[in-house]
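Translate sequence into structure tokens.
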Amino acid sequence: MSRIRSRNTGPEMTVRRELYHRGFRYRLNRKDLPGTPDIVLHKYHTVIFVNGCFWHGHEGCTKYVRPSSNVSFWEAKVKANRSRDAKVTAHLEALGWYVITVWECELSPSRFLSTMDEVEASLRANRFRFLSDKASEKRRREAGSILRKRKRADVLSKEKSSLSGRRIPKTVRSLSDSSEE
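Result follows.
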């Protein structure tokens, strides 16, 4: 098992070549993200995991065959991999990232182009969703900013009226004058 690579695997390289060929630019194995995703497309706010069917226990796949020896070890290992994958996916989604999982069996020559077309369609949809989410977040921030300015102006006008007849410090005067403009 020590000779099994976790980076630059054959399936991962195949996906990376095709993404690059289709014009997508990406970063590899960003350690600052949970789970160190295989491929990170920041522009699309999407991460891609390329999973081996055996190591991640792809149910219903011909490449996932339970070993006949040391069964309890392998079942525990695959179960731990699955639970870790679920936790990492949930954490990334909570951080606002879109997660795509490509399985090794989906990269067979007969299914490769359709799989990559689906990945590309997901990336384009994620880009659109990310931009619309970003725009709506900007609108929310602007609305909140306007409300905060109005509240600040109301507070200053109340303070100004309550201070009538008293000497108003210069800083408060300048603040109230600038809010009236």
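Note: The beta strands are 27-28, 39-41, 46-51, 98-103.
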